[in-house]
Amino acid sequence: MPAANPDPVMPRPSLVDYAPVSFGLFALARELHGYGAELLLKLGLHPGQELILMQLFDRDGQTQAELQQAVGLDHSTVSRSIRRMEDAGLLTRAPAQHDRRAVIVSLAANGEALRRPLAELWATLDRLATDTLHRTEGAGFLATVAELERAYAAARRG
Questions:
Q1: Does some domain include residue 69?
Q2: Residue pLDDT, tens place only, 108-141
Q3: For residue 82, what is the domain's CATH number?
Q4: Which of 10, 45, 132, 137 could form a disulfide with 151 if both were Cys (CB 3.0 to 4.6 A apart)?
Q5: Rounded alpha-carbon distances, angstroms, from residue 83 to 12, 24, 76
């Protein structure tokens, strides 16, 4: 991994002086999301689709409404994601027997096959965070946030 730049990846505008922790968390989340999205794309997934799969790994055969509530995304986003995932052979949809208006979403074999790669993806993200936290212990929260941001940015650049 290249040497870490001591400056945060995202330049800090002066207004951030009023909310350095919040902006630090925002910048960290931005880098984490970006790096995670790149890893997901290597698996053929878009951000948010992994959340649907993970819910189904825990309990297969949920209604679309249950999945929407579990992942905290709006109806149209979940509906579009499920349709794309079905088209990609990751999920199946079928009318619920108890209510024909409800749709039951289940894992297809290709979706189940992503269980281990997704676990490895999350482990990669976690390992980067914990390795970085160990290096910066005692340096203060803001320094840790900046270090994590740099680590995710460096990982994204590969």
A1: yes
A2: 999 999 999 999 999 999 899 888 877 766 456 6
A3: 1.10.10.10
A4: 132
A5: 39, 35, 10
pLDDT in tens, 68-92: 999 989 999 999 999 999 999 999 9
Is the pTM higher than 0.85? The answer reads: no
The string of DSSP codes covering 29-61 is HHHHHHHHHHHHHHTT--TTHHHHHHHHHHSSS
Query: In 3D, which of 97, 67, 70, 69 has the Cα closest to residue 83?
Result: 67
The two tokens of residue 102 are 């409800």
- For the record, the structure tokens of 128 come out as 């980067």
Residues 71 and 125 in one domain: no
Whole-angstrom Cα distance, residue 125 to residue 148?
A: 11
Count up the domains in the chain and report the number: 2
Give the closest residue to 64 by CA, choosing from 79, 76, 54.
79
Give yes or no: residues 31 and 50 share one domain. Answer: no
Measured CA to CA in angstroms, residue 24 lies from 30, 59, 111 at distances of: 10, 35, 35
